């Protein structure tokens, strides 16, 4: 059944009011606060119809209604504002004028900005390294105590890590260590690198003078390379959302933050567990799973889709979608313009 204009007006007002107050919405509020030009009886009838169609839910303890995941989906696909306020745009332009040195720092800085502006958790989901293998390692010495290591995978994805040594390391030691690792680790799955590195310890001990510093630097870099696909800022904001006063719901959310595989399966819609999905006209994607909403925007880092990342906002399904969606869309495009 297609929604009538009146039903759409009622649904939009209920979403806006519930996002603002976190309280179930009744017909009197819609008439008094939103000035809907319909009688209370007509509004109640349409609210009942919207509930029967799955767009609204009725909490057991209230006569009012709240949006369902399907209701939020309709709202995000059809009723979002098209752009941000000019004041917010101006503030973001000023921030992006101070460009970060690399894309990882830019995305992490963006997560901080978004979490502060939304009072929600913001995160980065990096390229999926689970099916990639190490192709080559290059190391560039900056000075006797600093070097930059570049990891290249079989898909062409690259990761840069800066080594800051406590003592001076010679270029000969760096080159010998790099040659051994390239010879022994090429073709190794990324997630196996930390374990494989341990097995090379005896060989490196015999061949490299400053063995311990270089071993620790590479081992630490491999661990980060294998695990740094998920980053969050502002997770403590969730404690102040009324939905998470329920400790069980807070525990459920905490599991999400710690599980990059679960996040990836939801964001890339691989679970098949009937979560509700919406895609805005600008390509921002939304997933609702139980009481949790994930809004994400792809950041095209290069022409290789395996290197793309996602900027995300995670929180209760009751969030200010106009603000969140437009923020993510704007910031992801700015990062693409800076680095692509």
Task: Describe the protein's architecture and organization.
With 340 residues, this protein is of the alpha+beta class. 47% of the residues lie in helices and 19% in strands. It is built from 13 helices and eleven strands. The protein has helices spanning 5-21, 27-32, 40-52, 69-78, 86-97, 103-118, 171-185, 193-199, 201-207, 211-227, 247-258, 260-267, 321-339, and strands at 56-57, 66-67, 121-125, 134-143, 146-153, 158-164, 230-233, 276-279, 285-289, 292-299, 309-316. It has a six-stranded antiparallel beta sheet with strand order 7-3-11-10-9-8, sandwiched between helices. It starts with a helix and ends with a helix. 32% of the residues are buried. The model has no long low-confidence stretch (mean pLDDT 84).
Mean pLDDT: 84
Uncertain segments are none
- Structural class estimated from helices and strands: alpha+beta
Order of helices and strands: HHHEEHHHEEEEHHHHEHHEEEEH
What is the overall silhouette? elongated
Strand order of the largest sheet: 7-3-11-10-9-8
Q: Helix count, per DSSP?
A: 13
Radius of gyration, whole Å: 25 Å
Classify the helix fraction into a percent range: 40-55%
Distance between the termini: 44 Å
Largest sheet: 6 strands, antiparallel
Query: Could you tell me the strand content as a percent range?
Result: 15-25%
The CATH topology name of the largest domain reads Beta-Lactamase
CATH H-level superfamily of the largest domain: GAF domain
CATH class of the largest domain: Alpha Beta
Q: Please tally the β strands and state the result.
A: 11
Number of domains: 3
**Which CATH architecture of the largest domain would you pick?**
2-Layer Sandwich
């Amino acid at each position: 059944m297609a929604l009538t204009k009146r039903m759409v007006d009622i649904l939009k007002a209920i979403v806006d009011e519930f996002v603002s107050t976190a309280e179930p919405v009744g017909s009197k509020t819609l008439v008094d606060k939103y000035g809907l030009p319909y009688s209370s009886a007509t509004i109640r009838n349409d609210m009942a119809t919207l509930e029967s169609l799955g767009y609204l839910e009725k909490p057991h303890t209230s006569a009012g209604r709240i949006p369902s995941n399907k209701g939020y989906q309709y709202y995000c696909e059809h009723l979002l504002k098209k752009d941000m306020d000019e004041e917010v745009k101006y503030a973001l332009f000023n921030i992006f004028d101070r460009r970060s040195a690399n894309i990882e720092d830019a995305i992490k800085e963006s997560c901080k900005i978004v979490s502060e502006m939304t009072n929600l958790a913001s995160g980065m989901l990096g390229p999926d390294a689970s099916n990639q293998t190490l192709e080559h390692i290059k190391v560039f010495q900056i000075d006797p105590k600093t070097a930059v290591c570049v990891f290249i995978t079989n898909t062409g994805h690259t990761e840069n890590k800066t080594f800051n040594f406590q003592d001076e390391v010679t270029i000969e030691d760096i080159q010998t260590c790099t040659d051994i690792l390239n010879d022994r680790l090429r073709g190794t799955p990324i997630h196996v690198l930390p374990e494989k590195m341990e097995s090379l310890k005896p060989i490196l001990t015999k061949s490299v003078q400053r063995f311990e510093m270089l071993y620790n630097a590479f081992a630490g870099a491999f661990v980060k390379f294998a695990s740094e696909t998920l980053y969050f800022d502002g997770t403590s904001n969730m404690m102040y959302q009324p939905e998470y006063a329920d400790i069980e719901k807070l525990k459920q959310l905490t599991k999400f933050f710690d599980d990059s595989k679960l996040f990836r399966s939801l964001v890339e819609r691989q679970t098949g567990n009937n979560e509700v999905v919406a895609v805005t006209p600008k390509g921002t994607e939304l997933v609702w799973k139980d009481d949790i909403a994930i809004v994400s925007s792809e950041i095209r880092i290069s022409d290789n889709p395996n290197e793309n990342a996602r900027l995300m906002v995670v929180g209760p399904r009751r969030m200010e979608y106009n603000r969140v969606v437009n923020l993510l869309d704007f910031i992801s495009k700015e990062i693409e313009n800076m680095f692509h």
